[in-house]
Amino acid sequence: MKISNLRKGIFILGLVILSITIPLFGACAKSEKTGTIQVYVTDAPPVGVTAVLIKVSKVEVHKSGEADDQWVTVLTNPQVFDLVQVSGVNHLLGTSDLAAGNYTQVRLEIVDVTVTIAGVQVKAIVPSGELKLVGNIVIEAGKQTSVILDFDGEKSVVLEGQDKVSLKPVVKLIVGTPVAPPVTTTAPTS
Q: pTM for the complete prediction?
């Protein structure tokens, strides 16, 4: 009788251990799943400006709950796009797989801006050298999420005198499901 009670006890203990560890393995597997982020730019063209060439060297997102310096890179190959040419079109900057979860910020490193006004190209100043946007971006495992950076060209391009232009980006962050056409994937430039 004692041996059968011991076997029952070991069996019950084994069931208890399994009931605790199996959900833990499932939770670990869920946290490792990824979703896809697609980052686009679009614009309304500024009056009197025929081109606004912006060179972006890096796009990063910040995961909720991480330390302030923990950014995840989405795009590392530099891209040049023309805000005038992406008017009414969503231009794809990059696509990347990310760990599922909540992301709270998007950051673009802007290395060069050239504005064409009345046929004259002028280098624009970007005061901070970067654009940082705050918003709620949810990446779900196995799904695509689109992030559209909708520039307001009228407000973003500031003419400060003859041959002096600043880019002070006024941008609306739009988060949603994959973008419907029209979409461009090649870097439009003038």
A: 0.72
